[in-house]
Design brief:
By secondary structure, the chain is of the alpha/beta class. Helix content is 43%, strand content 14%. Strands 2-1-3-4-5-6 form a six-stranded parallel β-sheet, sandwiched between helices. A six-stranded parallel β-sheet has the order 9-8-7-10-11-12, sandwiched between helices. Helix 6 crosses helix 10. It is globular, with a radius of gyration of 23 Å. 41% of the residues are buried.
Length: 392
């Protein structure tokens, strides 16, 4: 049931003054990533609801390893940052209505917000926070303790995927302070070209080329396609990065002329490539969810991916694409993934059915406009609850 947005005495919707903080990556960071994109989308959703959003700090608390000296240094910097923010608010004789921390987790906790909340009593909200129990028992324990402090003091913790929601509930012990806001995009729809008839099926993939899970996905995709060269298809690859040579080497077994390397492209050109394709391929090892899957489906592309991480929260298996479960034997997972690709290359009717469902799924459930309504209602209830509490 959709919850109503709280209103003022005159019946107008409340415009909130929101302090917004991203401990992992500032929304204006020059390096593109899904995290940066989602931060920008959240800010856009809030602004579309009429709220004022101020990004209150550029402090990045990320650490690739649990270095205690780095944590101590960050704690000192964060304490000074919190004092500066409070001083500025008092000097301006203003105080925001609430604080939002986007994506605090053990490698990048919010070291500022909880300290400010303890001094001001402002409502505190996390979005896409995560909690992994094992991190409370290993070298990250001190870092995770800051995440736990944030979760404990939050009036509301908004999860992006059911997987993260389950982790938060396991820590908090209830779902009283939990809500779900599924991944969404600023969708561009009705850009689909008709699916292939007399020309090769156009496959497309989008992914940064870097070591780790991204390179693993490229190698897995290359291994799958290398056994399908008897079929009529062409692959467009969008992406670049330090592991490009390794990606090219992985795809070297595919005959020349079957692959087009586009490099990194601006979003409008990515959308053009998606709109002219027929099928989106990206295995997605360890993907939190992957906004690119939603972009592809908005363009009417069925998806073939692994059923890992939070991919199941952005692709509807059997309706908008095919998700392949990882099994104990890696070669069997690869065989199933290859078979799924082959089935959609060979079955145009199935591709078209998935295509229509994919674009409808994004348009009806995963747009920034829909997310703005949901987010507005959730935050309105947080502020309303505080207002009632203060005046009780």
């Amino acid at each position: 049931m959709t919850q109503p947005t709280p209103t003022t005495d005159t019946g107008a919707e409340i415009a909130l003054d929101i302090a917004f903080y991203c401990p992992l990556k500032h929304p204006d960071d020059p390096v593109p990533s899904g995290d940066r994109t989602m931060a920008r989308l959240l800010i856009e959703a809030l602004r579309r609801s009429g709220h004022h959003v101020e990004i209150v700090s550029r402090l990045r608390s990320f650490s690739p390893n649990p270095d205690p000296d780095r944590l101590s240094a960050l704690e000192e910097i964060a304490a000074r940052e919190a004092s500066t923010i409070l001083h500025d608010w008092h000097a301006q004789d203003r105080m925001p209505d609430l604080w939002i921390s986007y994506h605090p987790y053990y490698k990048s906790p919010d070291l500022i917000g909880p300290a400010i909340i303890s001094k001001t009593g402002l409502p505190y909200v996390t979005i896409e926070a995560s909690h992994a129990g094992k991190r409370s028992r290993d070298g990250w324990r001190a870092w995770q303790s800051h995440v736990e402090r944030a979760l404990d003091c939050a009036a509301l913790n908004i999860a992006i995927t059911p997987r993260d929601r389950a982790g938060l509930e396991a820590y908090l012990g209830s779902d009283d302070k939990l809500a779900l806001l599924p991944p969404f995009i600023d969708a561009v729809t009705d850009r689909r070209a008709s699916s292939s008839h007399d020309h090769p099926v156009r496959l497309v993939t989008v992914g940064m080329m870097r070591a780790g899970d991204k390179l693993k996905s490229y190698r897995f995709l290359a291994a799958a396609l290398s056994e399908l060269t008897a079929l009529a298809w062409h692959l467009d690859i969008i992406g670049d990065g330090p592991a490009r040579a390794e990606v090219e080497a992985a795809l070297a077994s595919i005959p020349a002329g079957r692959v087009t390397w586009h490099g990194a492209l601006p979003r409008d050109q990515v959308l053009e490539c998606l709109a002219s394709a027929d099928l989106y391929l990206w295995p997605g090892f360890n993907e939190a969810y992957g906004l690119a899957y939603l972009e592809a489906q908005a363009a009417g592309l069925p998806v073939v991916a692994l059923d890992v991480g939070g991919i199941g929260s952005v692709v509807e298996n059997g309706r908008t694409g095919l998700l392949i479960a990882e099994v104990g034997i890696a070669e069997e997972t690869l065989r199933r993934y290859r078979s799924a690709i082959m089935s959609l290359i060979n079955d145009q009717d199935k591709r078209l059915t998935f295509s229509r469902a994919a674009s409808e799924f994004v348009r009806s459930e995963r747009t920034v406009e829909i997310a703005a309504l949901r987010l507005d209602a959730l935050l309105g209830l947080v502020v309303f609850a505080r207002h009632v509490g203060v005046h009780a």
